[in-house]
Amino acid sequence: MSAQKPFGNDGIDDGDDAPSTSGYAAAGLQFAVALVLFALGGDWLDDRFGTAPLFLLLGVFGGGAAAFYSMYRKLMGPHGRKPEKQ
Fold first, then answer.
1. Which of 12, 59, 71, 76 is the 20 to 30 Å CA partner of 24?
2. Count of Cβ atoms closer than 10 Å to residue 21 Cβ
3. What Cα–Cα distance (Å) separates residue 54 from each residue in 32, 34, 42, 64, 81?
């Protein structure tokens, strides 16, 4: 009888070495959404305080950095594990 994995092939950590294709797609979508939300937030702050394009640029670069870090942790997480002692 074969052992079942705790999760399906949906990109969630199920003990494999890397996420599945849907995991990569989810990471890319998360990157895009974070970037757009930070840019829209920066644009809103620029309209509110009259500081165009200061907060827009901060939002784009801040959102890009945060999204990149999140994607890096998601995609490289399985590779950074220490081997278990037996």
1. 59
2. 10
3. 21, 18, 8, 15, 39
For residues 42 and 73, give the distance between their C-alpha atoms in angstroms, rounded to a whole number: 25
Joined together, the tokens standing for residue 62 give: 């801040």
pTM score over 0.70: no
CA nearest 43: which of 57, 29, 31?
Answer: 57
Given this model, what pLDDT does residue 86 score? 63
Domain annotation covers residue 11: no
Does residue 54 fall inside a structural domain? yes
83 preceded by cis ω (within 30°)?
no
In the chain, how many domains are there?
Answer: 1
What range does the domain containing 71 cover?
A: 33-78
pLDDT of 7-54, one tens digit each? Answer: 555 555 555 555 678 878 888 898 999 999 999 999 999 999 999 899
Residue 4 in domain: no
